[in-house]
Design brief:
About 55% of the residues lie in helices and about 25% in strands. It is α+β, with helices and mostly antiparallel strands and about 150 residues long. The protein folds into 2 domains: about 25-80, no CATH class; about 85-150, Pantoate--beta-alanine Ligase, Chain: A,domain 2, CATH 3.30.1300. Strands 1-2-3-4 form a 4-stranded antiparallel β-sheet. The longest helix has about 35 residues, at about 50-85.
Length: about 150
């Protein structure tokens, strides 16, 4: 029992400063939840002599693994929008800077996801205008970028 308490205490110290729940993406939270449940069940089955110990260790390991997988899925989702639409992003930023108006491009991917690129003009400094570009997928803000665009 002392070893289990020591392991749980050490794990809590290791992971206590990683991130707050508010800063985690939905995919990370979902992955951690699914991993915790699956790991808890598997741990209880594997450690049949002391199922509570197995469930606690399995849930902790599953939450970490599931959260990590969820964050990787989320980061790949964000990259695909930026990489796939680089020309569209550049065009939206240029139009927003020259027209001094918000420009929005929307498309639906083959998988049915709705992607949006919104370029909003900002301050003009000499011949450069600051443009803020936001990337959305299915209504969720994925990332924001600010560029200086020649007018």
């Amino acid at each position: 029992m002392k070893k289990l308490l020591l392991v749980v205490l050490a794990a809590s110290f290791l992971f206590s400063g990683c991130a707050t729940l508010e800063n985690l993406s939905t995919e990370t939270k979902t992955g951690a939840g699914i991993g915790a449940v699956a790991g808890g069940i598997l741990g209880a089955v594997i450690d049949s002599n002391k199922p509570w110990r197995g469930a606690i260790i399995g849930a902790a390991a599953g939450a970490v693994a599931g959260g990590w997988i969820g964050s990787k899925v989320d980061s790949k989702t964000g990259e695909s929008v930026v990489e796939a639409d680089a020309d569209v992003v550049n065009q939206a930023a240029t139009e927003a800077a020259k027209q001094n108006a918000t420009i929005k491009y929307t498309r639906t991917t083959e998988s049915g996801a709705k992607e949006e690129v919104i370029a909003t003009p900002g301050a003009l400094s000499g011949k450069l205008r600051t443009v803020t570009i936001q990337y959305y997928r299915d209504g969720k803000l994925i990332s924001t970028e600010t560029r200086q665009v020649a007018v």
